[in-house]
TrEMBL record:
Domain Zinc finger CGNR: 138-181
UniProt protein name: Zinc finger CGNR domain-containing protein
Superkingdom of origin: Bacteria
Organism for this UniProt entry: Streptomyces viridochromogenes
Lineage of origin: Bacteria, Bacillati, Actinomycetota, Actinomycetes, Kitasatosporales
PANTHER family per the UniProt record, alphabetical: BLL6575 PROTEIN
InterPro entries assigned: ABATE, ABATE_dom_sf, Znf_CGNR
Length: 186
């Protein structure tokens, strides 16, 4: 599956956005205020975003919840319906652009769109490409029981199980090793 630069940027943004969701009472909201949203926008180099407000923050949190539902959905048909609703509500307007030193790429949001519509359109289309390619199962949640972060499995054989093999994967492998050693020691 060919993943262009702009699609990869959108995938990174949607994964990071979903992972800002609070997980019960243990994890605080990763987008607690407008300043955090501004940092998110800056870190992901979104273009055409004006001054952010509490309204933008609320709208982005709603979009974030809809993206989280897509990552949680095992059925491609249902995921496609969720993506269609999200993209349609954003007023998708595909256009070619070459800005900020990047070669030609497609933006799916309308000029002057809100940051929530920007996310819904561009990130929604990035996820749509995976459903169209029959690769929706690559939109995953970490299998570590104490993590559950979203990620996109871009491994060749679709075998990635953890959001980060150096942290979640390694922690579980070490725990399993210690349990085996303890059992063998009797």
């Amino acid at each position: 599956m060919l993943i262009t630069h702009d699609t990869r940027c959108a995938l990174d943004a949607v994964v990071d956005l979903v992972n800002t969701s609070p997980e019960g009472d243990e994890t605080p909201d990763g987008l607690p205020d407008v300043a955090a949203l501004a940092d998110f926008v800056r870190n992901h180099e979104f273009s055409d975003v004006g001054v952010l407000s509490e309204f933008d923050l609320s709208a982005v949190r709603k979009v974030r919840g809809r993206f989280a539902a897509i990552f949680a959905e095992p059925d491609a048909r249902t995921a496609a319906g969720l993506i269609n609703e999200l993209v349609a509500a954003a007023g998708t307007t595909p256009r070619l652009t070459d800005h900020d030193g990047y070669d030609w790429h497609v933006h799916y949001f309308a000029p002057g769109a809100s940051v929530a519509d920007h996310l819904a359109a561009d990130c929604g289309m990035a996820l749509a490409f995976f459903v169209v390619a029959g690769e929706q199962e690559r939109l995953r949640r970490c299998e570590a029981p104490d993590c559950r972060h979203a990620f996109v499995d871009l491994s060749r054989n679709r075998s990635r199980r953890y959001c980060d093999s150096r942290t979640c994967g390694n922690r579980l492998h070490v725990a399993a090793y210690r349990a085996r050693r303890k059992e063998a020691a009797g």
